[in-house]
Amino acid sequence: MSDDPTCAICGRTILAGERVHGFVEPSGGHSVCELCIDRAERLGWRPEGAPDADPDHRPRERAGWLRDLLGRRTRRAEAPPADPAPVSGAPPAAEPDTGRPSDLPVPAPDPAAPGRRARLPVGPDSVPSPAERAIARFNASEAGRTVFGLSRTLGAPWVSVGAAAGAPHEVRITVAWELSWYQWGVDLADELRPVFQLDKGGEIDELDQPARQWNACLGEEGVIELGRPRAGAGSPSGGQR
User: Fold this and answer.
1) pTM for the full model?
2) What are the backbone angles phi and psi of residue 72, rounded to the nearest 5°?
3) What is the end-to-end Cα distance of the chain in Å, rounded?
4) Is 21 helix (H, G, I), strand (E, B) or coil?
5) pLDDT digits 0-9 by tens, 176-221
6) 113 contacts 223 by C-beta, under 8 angstroms
7) Given strand 20-25, what is the order of strands in its sheet?
8) Helix (H) or strand (E) holding 24
9) How many CB atoms lie within 10 A of CB 83?
């Protein structure tokens, strides 16, 4: 059984070099990844060491919150359809703020984080390559958000995108820093299969030669881009550009 720490909110394994935040609530302390800080606060957890300004404060009960959510959905389903939006282009009236999210909790968007876009070729004759399809799915996945979060701490990584050995329908994406690297797989034969982690390590020399063909980078918008190796720095030990 792995002893790697996990986030108490999303359950994801905390990667080496990733910042972890401590939160407490009546049942005990928890470790939370950077992407789930807002969700922890919405649950009523408070940061470790922070004073509890309201001694009568209690975390919101999940069962009560879910009952309220289901009630809202039922009321919406039974409500008559809204009038069509006016042609004038005026924005629709905002829904009253009830103090609760309108859907199941998800990681709050980071103001500095990019929108996760597919970045596929456009045009009637454009046919994306396997690498472009894999990158589009990776950028939209939890793994893509993890790489963006790590880059804020570790800096811009080196990235390679290529076929996975022995798996003709899988594309392997390698993301490396000076002292750590990670590999993920994208199964192009199964669109419903999530992006999955293949391996991780500390020394770049542990990678095979194809994985060190740095043919992509993490662009300015925080998404992996093919054909633009990392600029402004030399290749890591044993790497090629």
Assistant:
1) 0.51
2) -65, -40
3) 38
4) strand
5) 999 999 999 999 999 999 999 999 999 999 999 999 999 999 988 8
6) no
7) 28-33, 20-25, 46-47
8) strand 20-25
9) 6
